[in-house]
Write a structure and sequence with these properties.
- The complex is a heterodimer of chains A (122) and B (274).
- Chain A is mainly α and 122 residues long.
- Chain A has 4 helices and no strands.
- Chain A has helices at residues 5-39, 53-61, 65-93, 97-119.
- The radius of gyration of chain A is 19 Å and the shape is elongated.
- Chain B is built from 12 helices and no strands.
- Chain B has helices at 2-21, 26-37, 41-65, 71-92, 97-118, 123-128, 143-147, 157-174, 179-190, 194-218, 224-244, 250-273.
- Chain B has one domain (2-273).
- In chain B, α4 crosses α8 and α9 packs antiparallel against α10 (194-218).
- The chains are: A mainly alpha (122), B mainly alpha (274).
């Protein structure tokens, strides 16, 4: 199977732009969170709250610094995963099934990692 | 307020150093947070991983747009690195902090020695080492053909798989991007040109670190108040570093970096002994 070079270049360009865009979005969210920390007189060494998805939206609505910071950090973490997802989708369109399997495999390993961490089986 | 500015400034310095010297910056952020701010090592590692993702995503984006990185090779090796990161992230919370500190000290010494030795080899000569030209169209033929790029042929895939898995374990345990392992692995071990190896490593680093970070978050190992200012600083520093690279005497910078790493390694060792 031969992959046209122009198709590969197009995929790489799209993934590149996605990564750069998400990096800037995450920085903007983090800057907002740090600005709210300064306004609220919160020191970075005060000890921030752990991630709680149940209070994330209420925290954002009330402009709690932790809300914006966690949203920014989650955007940072999601960025590389979206790179794999977009690459997997692009390879599926190119019918390059071995690369699709690799993309799915990466997600499977990450899912196992999350499962292990959340259930505390280690 | 002052602590926030110090974190921002420290992160920026790590970002500048990291981008000028081709490192993720994790080797500087962890000592900064533990020795400078008294954070427990695991929290420092968690914050460092966030910073590593931040810088690698931005850099990988640029490399992909310019078609320097090898996406197929990066994703293939990343499968095994993610596996290593899963193992490392899982055992990180079972190991004694002093053992992890000792491992990190060893890493600092290794990086310092590597950087000192790199200074004696002309970069252009190193970049051309072990590169075998190919005439086949990438994307056709054997696995190695399909992973190869324009003007070079990938070899030693077994070594690549083993090295990538080890890099994943080190990344999750020590909060580093793992570029210091992956770049020599791809360049010297697999015949990938240095520029492509560096770009592809950046592509992989973010995925590895993200996989480990999820585990750290689940264990409450990341403090958003520390991670926010540090990550912003690293991003600013890395952006500035990439623009400053042509103005800086890299030999002098490398010497300074080696000295800083040596001093930091000594401090961390004293902490373990003390």
């Amino acid at each position: 199977m031969t992959t046209p070079r122009s198709a590969t270049f197009g995929t790489e360009r799209r993934i590149g732009r996605l990564l750069i865009a998400l990096a800037y979005v995450s920085v903007a969210l983090l800057v907002g969170g740090v600005a709210l920390m300064l306004v609220g007189g919160i020191s970075p060494l005060d000890g921030g709250p752990p991630l709680d998805l149940d209070v994330l939206v209420p925290n954002l609505a009330t402009l709690d610094p932790a809300g914006l910071l966690w949203l920014g950090l989650l955007t940072v973490i999601v960025t590389p995963f979206s790179q794999v997802a977009l690459a997997g989708y692009a390879y599926a369109r190119e019918r390059d099934w071995s690369m699709v399997r690799i993309a799915i495999g990466i997600f499977a390993i990450i899912a196992v990692g999350i499962g292990v961490a959340v259930t505390g089986t280690v | 307020m002052i602590a926030g500015l110090l974190l921002l400034g420290g992160g920026a310095a790590a970002g500048v150093f990291g981008s000028l010297l081709g490192l993720g910056g994790g080797v500087l952020i962890v000592p900064l947070l533990t020795l400078g701010f008294g954070l427990p090592l695991r929290e420092a590692v968690g914050v460092s991983l966030v910073c590593v993702i931040m810088t690698s995503s931005a850099a990988a984006g640029v490399y992909l747009e310019r078609h320097v990185a090898n996406l197929r090779l990066g994703m293939t090796l990343e499968f095994f690195t993610a596996l290593g990161a899963l193992i490392g992230g899982s055992i990180a919370f079972l190991l004694d902090q002093r053992l992890i500190t000792l491992l990190f000290t060893g890493l600092l010494v290794y990086v310092a020695v590597t950087m000192a030795r790199v200074g004696r080899v002309p970069a252009t000569a190193a970049a051309e080492l072990d590169v075998a030209p190919v005439t086949d169209e990438p994307g056709a033929g054997t696995v190695l053909d399909r992973l190869s790029g324009e003007g070079y042929r990938v070899r030693n895939i077994g070594l690549g798989v083993a090295g990538a898995t080890g890099a994943g374990v080190a990344s999750a345990l020590l909060g580093i991007g793992g570029g210091i392992v992956k770049v020599p692995l791809m360049h010297v071990g697999m015949g990938v040109p240095l520029r492509v190896a560096t770009a592809t490593s950046n592509l992989m680093i973010g995925i590895t670190a993200a996989a480990s970070t999820v585990i750290y978050i689940a264990h409450g190992g990341i403090d958003p108040y520390v991670a926010g200012p540090t990550a912003i600083g690293v991003f600013m520093g890395a952006s500035a570093g990439s623009r400053l690279s042509h103005l800086v005497d890299l030999r002098l910078l490398r010497l300074l970096f080696v000295a800083v790493l040596g001093f930091t390694a000594l401090q961390m060792l004293l902490r373990v002994v003390g």
